[in-house]
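Training component of the fellowship. As part of building independent skills, the fellow (R.M.) carried out the full modelling exercise for a liganded target. The chosen ligand was KG4. The inputs are recorded below so that the supervisory panel can assess the work.
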Amino acid sequence: MILAIETSCDETSAAIVRQSEILSNELYSQISRHRKYGGVVPELASRIHAEVIDKIIDQALESANVGLSDLTHIAVTSGPGLEGALMVGIAAAQTLANTLKLPLIPVNHLHGHIYAAKAIASFRFPLLVCLASGGHTQLIYMKNNLSFEIVANTMDDACGESFDKVARMLGLEYPGGPHIEKLAKEGSPSIPLPHPIKHKPEAFSFSGLKTAVLQITQSAENYAHADIAASFQHTVANIMAHKIYLALDKFDVKQVILCGGVFANQFIQAVIKKKVQSIDCVVPPLALCTDNAAMIGLAAEEYLTNYSNSCEFVQCNTRLGVNFPRELV
Ligand code: KG4
Ligand code: ZN
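Fellow's submitted model of the complex:
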């Protein structure tokens, strides 16, 4: 029975997970409090996490109908993320682990995004992960559990970041992804946009695409915003689908997992599923695509299954006070 905590960015979340079952997944989204700044303000995020973390943990226990004495482990996101924000979750987790004398499991946030898919499907190795969030865009080849070979990475912006920046150009609120998806439904993908480094299988690039959109918004042609949104989304979907397609040529896999906030986007999901066709393509449910603590609990279970020595989870280091299990560094 794991209590998992996630505070890496602007969602304060706590969850109870037991044997791959999510008993609760409580979340306080700070979005409305960052919106007027057009993005996440790190210092504000830390303060809000500190304000609400206790309440969210209580809610997670309560809605799972679980008491502190039922817990066997505490898991917490230890990075990557905003350092001040991470600190709040880590401090809460360490306090609980020390007080309750339970092992503390520091979890890599990206592993959380990947293992979110476990909520709906068993992993079939070897598999290919496409992870697209606000901070990362990667293709990862997994030969086995907890074996991560990064086969493509972004050279500049992350995919989610490009959604956020294009949204801002169109006068839409942060985070941009859901607003662009909504607006795109009213437009048509009629504006040609570049597909940078199309033939490079090991890299993504979104900054040229972003600049192209900026030029279009500033052009004299007065394009409809809905058409710009639809064209941008369409181009991103093709970029993602094409990179996955190139990777599938090189790696013989049994499954493709799409994870991270960008895959909350139904259009992008559909384009990729059509492109990979015969391969089993798994996308976590919407609430598990964006940041949440349940995914951290699911990844922690994998650590527990694969790393027998729990002492490895409680080592200290200077930066964040916790360390990954040695094998994961
Ligand atoms: O995984 P996530 O919640 O947080 C990070 O770890 O970064 O991803 C957040 C990102 C944001 O950039 C947001 O605009 C994007 O995911 N996003 C979307 C959608 N929902 C969230 N992008 C495209 N379409 C969406 N529906
Ligand atoms: Zn994330």
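The panel noted the following from the submitted structure. The chain has a mean pLDDT of 92. Residues 121 and 230 are 31 Å apart (CA to CA).
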